[in-house]
Amino acid sequence: MLKSFKPFSLLLMALLAALSLPGCSEKQQQGKAPAPKKVELVYVEWATEVASTNVVRAVLEQQGYKVTVTPVSAAAMWQAVASDDADGMVAAWLPTTHAHYLKKVKDKVKDLGPNLEGTRIGLVVPDYVTIDSINDLNANAERFNHRIIGIDPGAGLMSKTEKVIKEYGLDFKLVEGSGATMVAALADAIDRQQWIVVTGWTPHWKFARWKLKYLDDPKNVYGKSGEIHTVVRLGLKQDMPKVYRILDRFHWSPQEMMALMEKNRHKGADPYENAKQWVADHPDRVKEWTD
After folding, report:
1. Is the peptide bond before 126 cis (omega within 30 degrees of 0)?
2. Could you read off the pLDDT of 173-216 as tens digits, one per residue?
3. What's the distance, CA 105 to chain centroid?
4. Using N-to-C axis directions, what is the helix angle for 47-62 and 271-281, rounded to 10°?
């Protein structure tokens, strides 16, 4: 009797042991998917970067990743990627605006190259303003209230503008704020047909909404046209090769970006929801980045 029972008990024990092995649990047998990998992206809260970062977020989430996007200052953005606190960003304005940030961390990050070409930065005025050069600002300082309306103090555009004030000997104060406060001041001045000079960049929807112009920069302090680059932490390719590949392939045009920015500027608009809709409406474009 014992002899006939022993093989059965051994078989039962073997079956129980097999069920306890990795890959054989009840939940796994039911096909439970593994938890999605997390991706951390950082960006500066400019209209351009709000658009591009949310598009990348929507694409990565479509591929099964859990994505966190965090708005920070430009300095903090570069430091976060360099110190591995973030996986990457698609908001590096090069070769001029963010050049000093890249110089500090160039051995700690990987520059994947441009995701958009044709950027520009400089001082912008409404087209009814009758000067065309930075050289003409001092002679008309009273009409501008001796102020240049700027954005967040950590932005590379602001440090470039401080250099412009010094190089041209401008009797102007650079007013700190944000992209939103700059646009609000510009809108108010245009409504009143007042003279105003602001820190500006392209692509930006304000050029589609109003007739604006860049002031000539004879000393070329702002530099010529540039690019927006994708920059990632050094270990990303080994840790998450698919994420690395998508970020490396991500590339779109100023026209595509500005179309999305135009939707984002409307009252009550949700940039993330708009980005998801853009991704849904452009499957062929997205396939170029993910296939």
Report:
1. no
2. 999 999 889 999 999 999 999 999 999 999 998 998 899 999 99
3. 18
4. 60
Please, which residues have CB within 8 angstroms of residue 47's CB and are 6 or more apart in sequence?
A: 179, 204, 205, 261, 264, 265
94-116: pLDDT as tens digits: 988 899 999 999 999 999 999 99
Q: Rounded to whole angstroms, how far apart are CA atoms 72 and 152?
A: 10
Can you list the domains of the chain with their CATH numbers? 38-119+225-290 (3.40.190.10), 120-214 (3.40.190.100)
Cα gap 289→56, rounded to integer Å: 10
Structure tokens at 108: 């700690």
At residue 161, the 3 state secondary structure works out as: helix
Name the one residue in this structure whose structure tokens are 């047909």.
193
**Residue 30: predicted pLDDT:** 52
239: tokens are 């840790």
113: three-class secondary structure by DSSP: strand
